[in-house]
Amino acid sequence: MNENMKALSFKLRKDTVDIIMAGKGGHIGGDMSVMDILSWLYLKEMNVTPGNMEDPGRDRFILSKGHAVEAYYAVLCEAGFLDLKEVTEKFSKFGSQYIGHPNNHLPGIEMNSGSLGHGLPVAVGMALAGKMDNRDYRVYTVMGDGELAEGSVWEGAMSGHNYNLDNLCAVVDRNRLQISGNTEDVMKQDDQIERWKAFGWNAISCDGNDFNELSEAFAKAREHKGDPSVIIANTIKGYGSEVMENKASWHHHLPNEEEYARIMKDLDERKEMAENE
C-alpha cells in the first residue's frame, strides 16, 4: 500500500509542477519536500472528506507553511475536494479563488494561512475547543523549519503542553533550506527533538519522504496520551528531481522549458520505479 502511495506522490508532484507552470510562479522546492506529508495526511491519516466537512467531529488541518499551497491544491484534488483541471487553469489568475496561499473559501481548507508562525497557535485553539466540547477529532498542522524562528510558534508550543492537548499533532517539514539559505546559517535549530521535548511535547523523528516511516510516526502520535506530539519530518527540498534537490535557489523558482522537461522526466522515472518495487 505504501508503495502505491509512493508512486502516487510522484504523480502529484507532476500535477504540482503543472499548476506552477500554468500560474507562472510558486514555491516549488517546498512543494516537493512536503508532498508526502500532505498526501499521507489527506489520503490515509485524517478523518476528513468532501462529505464530512460540516461534521463537527471531523479532523482539522492547517497548512501553516501556506506558501506550499500548490502541493496542497494537488492533494486536495486527489482527495476529491477540488478539480485539477480547474485549479491548473485558474491558479494565480486575476480574480481567481486559487491564490498563492490557502483560501478557506475553497472546499477542504479550514484556514487562510501564509503569515508564518500562525498555524500552530490556531491549531492549539482548535484542539482546545475539541477538548472543551468533548469531541474526539484530531488537529494537524504542517510548519516549515524556517518558520520556527517565529516566536508565536513557541507560544503555541507552551500552550499545547499546558493544556495537555494530545489531540494535536504538529509536523515540521525539516528540509533545512529557506528563502535566504540553510536554516542552520540563518537561525540555528538543532537539536529539534530535544528542543520540543523541553517544551513538553512528544517528539518523533522520521524520514518525511518515506511513507513507511511517516505511517509509523503518525501512529506513534495518535497513540501518545497526555501531551501534544510533533513529528520532525526530515525531507529534501525539491525532492523528486536532481534539478531541484537541496538547492535554496529553488525555494521560489519558475522552471524554464528545459528545466521543466528534465523535472517531469525525473518524476516519471521515479514514479515508474515506485510502481515496480
Structure commentary:
The chain is of the alpha/beta class and 277 residues long. The chain has one domain: Rossmann fold (3-Layer(aba) Sandwich). 46% of the residues lie in helices and 12% in strands. It has ten helices and seven strands. The chain has helices at residues 2-23, 28-45, 69-78, 84-90, 119-132, 151-162, 183-186, 192-198, 211-223, 257-276; strands at residues 60-63, 139-144, 168-174, 177-178, 181-182, 202-207, 229-234. The strands form two sheets. It has a five-stranded parallel sheet with strand order 1-2-3-7-6, sandwiched between helices. It has a two-stranded antiparallel sheet with strand order 4-5. α1 packs across α3, α1 (2-23) runs antiparallel to α10 and α5 packs parallel to α6 (151-162). The longest helix has 22 residues, at 2-23.
Q: What's the SSE blueprint?
A:
Blueprint (H helix, E strand, L loop, with lengths): L1 H22 L4 H18 L14 E4 L5 H10 L5 H7 L28 H14 L6 E6 L6 H12 L5 E7 L2 E2 L2 E2 H4 L5 H7 L3 E6 L3 H13 L5 E6 L22 H20 L1
Parallel strand pairs: 1-2, 2-3, 3-7, 6-7
Antiparallel strand pairs: 4-5
Spatial separation of the terminal alpha carbons? 11 Å
Count of discrete structural domains: 1
Main sheet: which strands, in order across?
A: 1-2-3-7-6
The chain-level structural class is alpha/beta
